[in-house]
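MODEL INPUT / OUTPUT PAIR
PAIR INDEX: 1
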Amino acid sequence: MNWRYAVLLAVVAAVCLALLFIPPIPQSEDYHNFADQRALLGIPHCLDTLSNLFFLVAGGLGIRFAAKNAGAHGGAAFLDSRERWPYLVFFVGVALTAFGSAYYHLEPTDSRLLWDRLPMSAAFAALLAATIAERNSVRAGLGWLAPLLVFGAGSVLYWNYTQSLGRGDLRPYVLTQFGFLLVLVLLVALFPARYTRTMDLVGALGFYVLAKILEAADRPIFALGHIVSGHTLKHIAAAICAYWILRMLRLRAPIAAKAALA
């Protein structure tokens, strides 16, 4: 077995085993109690709700780009026209997150949180499949797309079911959100790139890390002047993450083609 695959499989196995043997991860009872409770313009939790428009913009622009750029005959973003499908699913997931998250923030409850997390899980899964297609093979990326989507949706449904029983367990969803991103980082670190602009993907992940930091600092940020909360800023940073991936697709070029032109 190639050493790269051995490292990847070892890390994936270690993460799965760690999550399997740790106790269930419950949903915090205070999760829905966001810092900014203001209703403006007749909209409950206004800024947390309206800031989801950034997801709709980033997702909509991405859908348009992926639908128009079909590969070698449609632009430099994709050497193989099939590579655009995981990205199309990714941007659809981002756009749907705007609706799911807005629906949730209008009235934050467990039942509504389900519709926030489902499209996000699709976006995580599709981005990992896109990276597999580019760093391993297009066939492998497309082959993994459906199983990853099913696992992502299943992790959310599992959390929702256990939550309804009063013993919520976020372990599979943690694997979807952070485990998928860890595998993505490993793919980027271990396997050669087929396109330029890899640092744009790293930058996008940086914006996602910033989004999680802002989410954790929801109340301290809002306390600074009661202008905007950390959770509202989290939505903006996460939407920029999605836009940065679109920016990467727009600007990148096949490395082989670039070498041939040099």
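PAIR INDEX: 2
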Amino acid sequence: MLPYGNIEGMRSSASALAFLLLLAIPSHAGCVPKRVLHVVMRIDDPALPADHFARKPRTVYRLGNHYGLVEEAYDPDRKLQLRVVVSEPDVWMVNLADHSGQHMIDPGPSIDFHAPVLDAVDSKHWRQMEIGCEVPYMKAVKAAVAPSDDGGKQYTHSAEGTTVVLTVDRNEIPKRVDINGAKGKYSMIYDTYEMLDDASPARFAKPQDVEFVEAK
């Protein structure tokens, strides 16, 4: 997701691609959505003003290892609404506000889509926890498990100077991630987390009605 720590840089094409194509950082082995995963997330940070752009929800879709879509809310100050569509090796970055866009080919060597939950955390360990793979990752690192107040669970794990608490419901669907690290305390709130009855890559096709230029 687009964490508040990198929000300005993430909105440049180079940084957006760094988020989506973290080729040097392996995802948790064996964890890939077999159907289309739909997630809507937002930041909860007491240090941010209530109307800060970083608090606005961001939407992620992903399917398997090669398909992804990330979309921001509209930013009236910049007249920008960013959508990034990945159908490896093709990547399209679109400003929905003016229907302009850039296209590039993922140069490899690994052709994979990645969506780290904690991209703002400077940690190879925590960047391996991806959207859609939160619970398997916490289990793999042997996180401590405790019941939550609503009948769900909390997975807690500390590494590389950062403590993360993943709260899930009774069905182990993520509800929130609380982070305490060098950049302070903040949370990622899941407003939507669902597997769609869909396994088609059609959602991740080249966007239509957009004038694309090739990214340098």
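PAIR 2 NOTE: The two ends are 24 Å apart (CA to CA).
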